[in-house]
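Q&A log
Question type: sequence-to-structure
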Amino acid sequence: MAGVNGNGKSTAIQALLFLKSTINRCVYYDFSSKSYMLSGWNEARIPLNEDFCLSLGTVDFVLNKNVPKSEINICLNYDDSDIEATYVENLYSTEPQLWILANKIAFSENYLYKDLPLLKQQFYYLNAERTGPRISQDLRYYDYQHTGWKGENTAQIIDLEEGYYKVNSERLCPHASVENRFTKEMEVIKSVNISDQVNAWLGYIIPGVSVKATKSKEALTSQVLIENQFTTANPTIATNIGFGISYILPIIASGLIAEKGSYLIVENPEAHLHPSAQSKIGRFLAMVANAGVNVIVETHSDHFINGVQIAVAEKEINNNEVIVNFFQQHKNGKQPEIKAIGIKEKGELTDWPKGFFDQTQIDYSHLIRLKKNV
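Response status: OK
Response body:
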């Protein structure tokens, strides 16, 4: 997803996160029938400010008071299946409502019998405001491996008993040998261990950098040590290195562990990264999508889009599996307009509407006009 600030990209993601929060409270998997079942959904209170870093305030901030019917309707279509949820406020409450009532949840026929992405327990989301460099991270219990909504579990995930967790072979880094600075050896990374693949991809995206995760069972903490060309033989703590590595590590780790058929949602993957790294993280997430993960990205980076285009041109993902939804607001429009932009087999975009990553050309044209007027 791309578009000018305030045109609905974050709102679209919030709607999906809120629907997932509702499902987590109202749907369970029944092992005897091998299907998903609804339970306790009627007028269930769904919090507005807890799950997935949502911070929606009170009901007054999310309901549209300019329409006669005070309710929210969220509908998700996936192939031939639909899920629809309707929410209303509690008109009898005198306290500020930090929740909203799930008034109706409806599934299309046989929806609950399908293993669709939003019904899976495995769900991966990384907020735009991720955890920055920390000396250590607390050890946490989780029902399934994930880096946390802000990347707060990243060190714990990378360590995973020194990398015993096996990465899907379709996600192995194909981009060359990498130097493992902790063993001082050059090697072609074919290992499927999570720690090895994190370093392989990290070395591709930010050359010359490697990390090592450790944990202290006594202190209940985990830690990432970082090494680059300036710290040879003396790895340093994350707080002594810039934000970029800490921001990108949870993206790499999440992309490597995300289960096939699940959702991986990443907000602003380009944050704190050099343009070269922005392009390469786009290529990485394209390959994760090609491995069967439903990847949704909100970005303001043309470099990221370029990386996805290169992945298509290099046949690392089929062009039919990629779409760029461009959010734009017309002067008199009450809702944003969403334009779907495809990518051709050779990597070219199918359309380039006004306002879509055209600021470089606009600025260059302005500079040329200024130069001619001198």
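Response note: The two ends are 40 Å apart (CA to CA).
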